[in-house]
Amino acid sequence: MGDPPRRPRSLFLAGLAAAYLAAFASLYVQIPGLYGRDGILPARRVLRLSGKGLWEQLRDFPTLLWLSPRLGLDTELGMELLCLLGVLASFGALLFESLRDSLLFALLRVLYLSLYQVGQVFLYFQWDSLLLEAGFLAVLVAPLRLLKWRSTTWRAHDGVTFWLVRWLLFRLMFASGVVKLTSRCPTWWGLTALTYHYETQCIPTPGAWFAHQLPVWFQKFSVVATYVIEIAVPLLFFAPVRRLRLFAFYSQVLLQLLIILTGNYNFFNMLTIVLAFSLLDEEHVGHWLGRSKKRHTSTWPPSLRSLLSALTELSAYAFLLYWSVQYFSLEINWEKRLLDSKVAFTYHEFTTWLRAVTLPLVGLGFLSLSWEILFAMYRCFCIRGCFWKLWATLQWGVFATATLGMFAVSLVPFTYIDYESNGKLWPGIHQMFSAVERFQVVNSYGLFRRMTGVGGRPEVVLEGSYDQQTWTEIEFTYKPGNVSRAPPVVAPHQPRLDWQMWFAALGPHTSSPWFTSFVYRLLQGKEEVIRLVQTDESQYPFSARPPVYLRAQLYKYWFTGSTQGSPGPAPWWRRQLLHQFFPTVSLGDPALESLLGQHGLKDKTPPRRSADALLPRALRALRRLSRPFSGPTILWSLYLVAATIYLLRALGHRRGDPADRGGGEKNGQVRRKEGKEAEEKGEGRARGAADGHGDGGRPPKKRK
């Protein structure tokens, strides 16, 4: 039985703090334009006073923003306060291990859930739900240091709660692979999805242009690799062989790094890698840090256990290779020097297989969890001292029950991949899920279900005019517009308006009601909304005076080819006008007024609250200080500060090492003897310390 994974848990908590930092800081810079008094979707519209008491409001609509009036804040300033508290708490947890506490992660989750409740369409992304679910698991996984008189590095039950992180990663990846095939999208079934993906994703990076130029056979093989990593490899998350779990870890990290290079998906890829830390063990992370323990040298003949592990590992690799070749008809074409591939099964065969394996996969997860629970119980029995043994067993019972409950509730969204299996679940599990659904404790996932923009990337381009004769395009900071401008790199910041503009282009403007409000605010010349379009207001063509008329055109965009040439700077895009997306409107236009009234977006701006109180004045002062800086600038500045502090700490530790090594060499013989004696006499003591309880508060007697 290996060492408890203290370091992987610490990496998970630090990485989750970094993801929270990105989420809070990125949202903070966008609050005035998205949710402010004169924003696109003012948050005050969501929090309507209904005459209910505070606790009833919190029960029906759980958000701390109900407390804003009691602090003398409007809803916008309340959101800014929650974001700033989240930035401060997550930045502290990222820097200091002592702050990676269960209470602090509970605070972070409550803060983000409060924002999520009023975020409306701009916060309804799968990674927001994923962050909330991972944040809830962190409350169970993180140690409770702040309220304990005694520091606990590892508790006997921590392996049980940490297993839930691995289960979340499995649900995320397996479902994301399966939905690509259950959607019946012809590009996923034809293995041609990536020939469209790089240019049709929301905000591509410069790397996406280069990836788009790769040959078709390689793009098809990349889709096959995606299926293998998302559907087959996740089964290895629960493998009993350590090297198989490490192989699964590096496979997932490779996929996420490739996505980072070719697309701006904010903190999602970072968060997925953070979840993958649950596949690591203490020894492997120690090897990264240069602090791994010396492993026993291999002996010949090998033990039965190592022989079985090697055979299991080779069998798993052989099965993955056979499965890939068999079901995707992989064949080397020596004449054309390429690798041919195609799907060798039908939709009916796949859905039959999925129906057959969904509930057995639930059983596999239950067996893996049961092993963790039994292993944790064994650790409780190894603790010395009757009181500490009973205390550890009591904690084990509580957290094992909570983990089993979380596992049971998660089965409802997991089995959405096969509704027949979902219907076979015990009705009580469905009732438990319904009771916690509004708290975003567990969620369903399935990324890139269908490939959009197969005939070209649809893109909405806004145009403004003073006389309806001369029209000027309104360029966004991040989303494609000018064909000569290179795609940006903005992750982990998420420009949420640019993302929704991408979704709006997929249908008529009536299916995106917020777009009418967006046009209305631009006609009014609202500064905070303009900053969502252009962070540098001097680049906004109507900065001096708002346009009198606005309209929106729908274009199709394509990446240029590597062989295309043109005079002047080489363009990244080519485009073609399709039709008008939004009609020409102006302030007071009956058509605009009708659309605003139809979507319930026309209401009077309430009077501004008095800013005499200290808290509103402080929040507005911080807003003025941060206004000149963009989201990526603020985020990377915070990460750079954190990296600098980590580097200084590492240099400080290294500077102290030579003295320690010198002392060890001078008294090496004595130290070796003491170490050997301690190793012989303190095995039980070390085991108790590994469980986080020392020797039950009772120091061992010294032998003469």
TrEMBL record:
Organism listed in the record: Strix occidentalis caurina (northern spotted owl)
UniProt keywords, alphabetically: Endoplasmic reticulum, Glycoprotein, Membrane, Transmembrane, Transmembrane helix
Transmembrane segments: 12-31, 77-96, 103-124, 130-147, 159-179, 221-241, 253-280, 353-374, 394-417, 629-648
Residue spans of biased composition, Basic and acidic residues class: 654-664, 671-698
A Pfam family reported for this protein in Swiss-Prot or TrEMBL: LMF1_C
Region (Disordered): 654-704
A GO CC term attached to the entry: endoplasmic reticulum membrane
Name this polypeptide is given: Lipase maturation factor
GO BP annotation list: protein maturation
Similarity section: Belongs to the lipase maturation factor family.
All copies of domain Lipase maturation factor 1/2 C-terminal, residue ranges: 441-583
Organism classification: Eukaryota, Metazoa, Chordata, Craniata, Vertebrata
Domain Lipase maturation factor 1/2 N-terminal residue range list: 124-285
Coiled-coil region list: none
Topological type in the membrane: Multi-pass membrane protein
Localization annotation: Endoplasmic reticulum membrane
Main function: Involved in the maturation of specific proteins in the endoplasmic reticulum.
